[in-house]
């Protein structure tokens, strides 16, 4: 978890400077299902369009990174219900920030 915390401290938003890790790509790299992998790529492309069309929300970065760490911790625990809960929580807050 310390390595992940270090990553959160060094992540920079796209277009602002180089990022050291993309938490979404990191988590998706563990998908062992071609259908889920394709869904991830499709969704990631859609999100990139939305992110490029909106102004950067600096106040969202730290909370979002904390949510990513919660998702990773749930993955590490092997608790699939907790993983789903944390992902749904992250999505809900992200959509709220986007005004959706």
Automatic annotation (TrEMBL):
Keyword presence, rRNA processing: no
The organism's place on the tree of life at top rank: Bacteria
UniProt keyword terms in alphabetical order: DNA-binding, Transcription, Transcription regulation
Sequence ranges assigned to domain GntR C-terminal in this UniProt record: 8-92
UniProt-listed Pfam families: FCD
InterPro entries noted in UniProt: GntR_C (IPR011711), TF_FadR/GntR_C (IPR008920)
Name of the protein: FCD domain-containing protein
Protein species of origin: Paracoccus saliphilus
